[in-house]
Design brief:
alpha/beta; seven-stranded mixed sheet
Length: about 190
């Protein structure tokens, strides 16, 4: 199962926990994670003023695909920046066309809506994004903390970041690896 790769797209205003926790958990599982800056490789100011240094620009990282999962953190205006980006649309359309996993958390799924990805799927979002996500009846909505439907995984917010990340690990690396990663985290069952 070695050799799995993840692309995490980071934009200004992204939610820090929804970015760093999945990156950390996936790396613990042995997944090669590339954090790609939407506008370049310069440090990105997140929603709570934490600065994160991308590994590469999205332009460069997108040329290094395909990836086993493309992940969209939430946060505002981070998710809005993802929703407005033609480069993100191109990356998502390519990933979706290959039935590659697409994971989005909190407000991140609104970028799926903006780019026409996953219509007909069951998704979840942060409660504050539910009405926006359901505009046009393109999705079925779930109140689950983490929702998997086909090759889409969505989740609700910062507090679900660990479960979200472990679901991605389980899908890519198997239940045994996910359990091995989870055990030392001291998570509440």
């Amino acid at each position: 199962m070695a050799g799995k790769r993840a692309l995490v797209i980071l934009s200004k205003g992204a939610e820090e926990m929804e970015t760093v926790i999945p990156v950390d958990i996936m790396r613990r599982a042995g997944i090669a994670v590339t954090v790609a800056g939407l506008t370049g490789k310069e440090p990105v100011q997140c929603s709570r003023n934490v600065m994160i240094c991308p590994d590469a620009s999205l332009e460069d990282a997108s040329k290094q695909g395909p990836y086993d999962v493309v992940l969209l953190p939430g946060g505002m205006p981070g998710a809005q920046n993802l929703a407005e980006s033609p480069v993100v649309k191109e990356v998502l359309k390519d990933q979706d066309g290959r039935k590659g996993m697409i994971a989005a958390i909190c407000a991140g799924p609104t970028a799926l809506l903006a780019h026409g990805i996953g219509y007909g799927s069951t998704v979840t979002t942060h409660p504050g994004m539910k009405d926006k996500m359901m505009t046009g009846d393109h999705y079925k909505y779930s109140e689950a903390r983490v929702q998997k439907d086909g090759h889409y995984i969505t989740s609700r917010g910062p507090g679900t970041s660990f479960e979200f990340a472990l679901t991605i690990v389980e899908e890519l690396m198997g239940a045994e690896v996910a359990a091995q990663v989870k055990a030392p985290l001291m998570m509440k069952d």
